[in-house]
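User: My advisor, Dr. K., asked me to get a structural model of this assembly before our group meeting. I'm new to this, so sorry if the format is off. These are the inputs:
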Amino acid sequence: MDTLLDIRNLSLEFRTPRGRVKALREISFPIRKGRTIGIVGESGSGKSTILWAILGLLASNAKVTSGEIMFEDRNLLALSESGLQAVRGEEISVVFQDPMTSQIPVLTYARQMFDILYRRPGMSAAEKRRHAVEMMQKVGIADPESRIDQYPHHFSGGMRQRAGIAMALLTGPKLLLADEPTTALDVTLEAQIIHLLQELKSELDTTVVVVSHNLGLIAELCDEVVVMYAGEVVEVGEVRQIFHDPRHPYTRALLECDPARIEKASRRLPVILGDIPDLAKPQTGCIYATRCQRAMPICRTDAPPVVGLTVSRFAKCHLLAGPHHDPQWPPPPDVLTVPMGESVAAPRTVGRAQGELLNVTNLNVQFQIMGPVSAWMRGITRRHVDAVLDVSLSVRPGETVGLVGESGSGKTTLGRTILNLVPAQNGSVTFENREIRNMAERHFKPLRRDMAMMFQDPVGSLSPRKSVRALIVEPILIHGIDCPDLDAEAERLADLVRLPRPLLARYPHELSGGQARRVGVARALALNPKLIIADEPTAGLDVSVQGEILNLMADLQAEHGLGYLIITHNLPVVRHISDRLAIMYLGRIVEHGPADEIFRNPAHPYTKALVEGVPNPDPDRRRTHVSISGEVPSLLRRPQGCDFVTRCPYAQDRCRIEKPPHSRITPDHDHACFFPLR
Amino acid sequence: MYIYLLKRLGLAVAVIGAVILVLFSLLHLIPGDPATIALGPRATPETIARYAAKMHLDDPIWKQLLVYAGNALTGDLGLDVFSERPVTAMIGERLGFTLALVFAGMGWAALLGIPLGCLSAIKPNSWVDRLTGILSVGAIAVPSFLVSIWALLIFAVQLRWLPAIGAGEPGDFSDQVVHLVLPAFAVGLGWVGYLARMVRASMLEVMGETYIRSARAFGLRPRKIVFGYALRVAILPTITLIGMGFGGLVSAAVFAEIIFSRPGIGKLIFDSVMSRNFPVVQGAVLVATALYIFVVLISDLVIAWLDPRVRESL
Ligand code: SF4
Ligand code: SF4
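Assistant: The format is fine. Below is the predicted structure of the whole assembly, which you can bring to the meeting.
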């Protein structure tokens, strides 16, 4: 088979104030024509840097120090800027990560696509338009003839990504690069985009490179996989080889950490301990040695051999060849090679007898969407939308409740309402049997000690000018609590969340993602709360690190009997740590019950779609169909009958007229569907 | 869109109404006979009597207000105390000169400042950028009346390249243009700096956006990316600034008109304040306010035209 793109010995560094960061070191792998290659790795692995190097669009402080990127017979690294400009978009094109920010908001799709076709003088304007419309049709945009004249903000997230794919394929490129193409999308949309890419790739016969941290997506979409760690390629192989017979300890660890691969619900998740090495410092030996579960003394001093049969199947590890060859490695697939993380093994104390910590009953939150004048002029009588509709939910001490939903489900609004940050129209919220809904802030403030919020983006929500020490004790100062020794308190909290004490003197931007999360947890714990509401506690974290945070949260719960309400879109993760799950759709809880039961045997069609929406990190279990189509409707257009009726594959006439009430299957499992799946 | 237009027009009318109210009450809040105050110390008893009759000063206050507002809105701003010419006509004669000055000032500032801002943003920290930066800050820092005086001294008095005072022969277009050069230069200079800085800042921000990187990844020409994409977005806050800037420019025009002895609204206001010619002050302030509101409205509409998101949220 012909090689379309050949990356040979590519090394690259970024010049930063901290010194030269060697972001890529001696990367070599071929990309063969007609194949789909997945580049997988965690943050800091350099996987996206490779894409930008191919396109010649590296940041201005980047410098290629060696190697070449051969595209057919040209070395892309040696091309002039105008030579590259001719290749970009025409022969090599890109699908971007976030369709919300990667399309210019002030130009119509027709205009944007027209601009991409500027190098086709032979095509008349009408031909260009026809071609663009055809492309939009191909990626599944209904009524492309008129929608092409709309602006990006008229398109929903999934439609925008489809349009992004249409733009990338417009010129019929030989090579299509996709940079985390589904990361910004909800699960059910991710499934649709993966499916679309699969279809297009067999139809158009393009060579595709997909960069992602999502093992499921790679398994479903790719023929070959390149595994990267800290700027090096550690293993390359056919997708089956990588997923069923990984040779490198890192590949193995990565697969073991993926919560979607863990069949049995378990309280703790496996983790890769430690942090990615600082690439500004010189590295010797194996790059993975500081975190490797099998590291040997030689790994720290001698570079591992490249062991493999061909250029497209190799791994770099001492265990595989040479004097330290271990014939027992790798062990059978069911053996766990990485640790489950540190554990303070106190027994879980789910205090069912202790009554409820938090109780939400029939809560309704409405948002006003326009003023009375505008509404009157537009002839609209209903001026508000229901962001939260008839929600009932409870959390007991020592219990974890997962609140799962896609964007627009109202899950975050619900969390904020419980914390009295958003007023509710009616219903009740009680905390330790005290009604707290719409309480005046002056009465509520003392309660904020007992209910802490853990924010989604810890670094963004922390003041950059304060040291970690100051940040951790900040809640104590805000609440004016008498604390004789703040330093000792900061150290106590740091120990509690296992944050090394020297880090207390640092500033938020100097922390790694996992460390910043720990600071977030420490802040939430500073006031000894009874309930923690965590908004996407692991969003943006690498799989190898998210286990650490979740295990830490589980330990703290076991020690202190905390109640957790975890708000998330990530079903595979919460499933492992939750006692109960509540699934939200358009502001309503559509199913609520024991976590494992819901995951294994969902009653509501939407829950089923969420469970099936997660791609399987196993190339032998690729999905052949998309379980649900369409997208979450706007709150302004809440369907008349069942909220899910516009997307439900099981919908019947009755669903279009009546709203299904909540009905019970067992005393602690209920759903809102006329035709439940069980 | 129409609702938005209606709202904005309603707002404009309300603001003008408020200005009328303020101007009216100023006259009546000062203790003493309003007619004497309005006409100043040099007014003769006849003019006072005529003024009192015209303004219905014997009627109740609310009626007077209605009459005043009604007159103002129908274009009758009263009479000049001295010449007894209609104020509306006096303003009408001068409005053109002020508008020409303000537009010429802002015009050259935009034509120079916006490209300079773009240039600086494309090559940040280059010598072009640094030089523009220093000159911009300098231009912003110097008050426009100083610029006027210096420009007058250097170009008109010393070098004698351009005429010093006046607005040019009526009817002689090229003469009028020649007379416009120095005042427009003085009025606009600070704005070159403002606009260059503003455009640079917003261009730098936009050039870092993901969609600009997309455009580069699709192989678009650099010139297209800068002017067709980045500037398209970066210009929006600048337009708002320009719209609001007209208010500031009218005050800069006051100085320029005084120094260059140009007939214009600014000079008119100045002269009438000095001579306590109250009806003229009132009328001129009202017209200037209305102009300002109108320009801001136009700039908002231009933004709505350029940015579909704004257009639809209206
Ligand atoms: S060479 Fe050593 S440290 Fe590196 S992956 Fe192999 S066993 Fe681990
Ligand atoms: S009620 Fe009908 S539309 Fe709603 S989820 Fe059940 S089957 Fe689907």
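One thing worth pointing out at the meeting: The first helix of chain A runs from residue 47 to 55.

User: Perfect, thanks a lot.
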